Amino acid sequence: MERKDFLKVLGVSAATAAVAPSLSYKAMAREKDIPSNRPQPEERKFRSRVIDDYIEYTQSQIKDETLKWMFGNCFPNTLDTTVFQGTFKGKPDTFVITGDIHACWLRDSSAQVWPFMPFVNKDDKLSAMIKGLINRHAASVLLDPYANAFCESTDNFCASFPDDEPRAKNGVFERKWEVDSLCYVIRLAYRYWQETQDTSFMDEDWLNAMNTIVSTFKTEQRKNGGTPYSYARKTSRTTDTSFDNGLGRPFYPCGAICSSFRPSDDSTLWNFLVPSNFFAVKQLENLAVMLTATNKSPATADEARTLANEVRQALLNYAIYNHPSFGKIYCYEFDGLGNQNLMDDANSPSLLSLPYFELVDRNDPIYNNTRQFLLSKKNGWYSEGTAAKGIGSPHTGRDQIWPMSLSMQAMTSEDEDEIMRCLHYLLTTHNNTGFMHESFDNNDPSQYSRAWFAWANGLFGEMVIHVNEKFPRLLRKKILKK
Question: What is the DSSP string of 444-476?
Answer without folding.
Answer: -TTSEE-S-BHHHHHHHHHHHHHHHHHSGGGGG
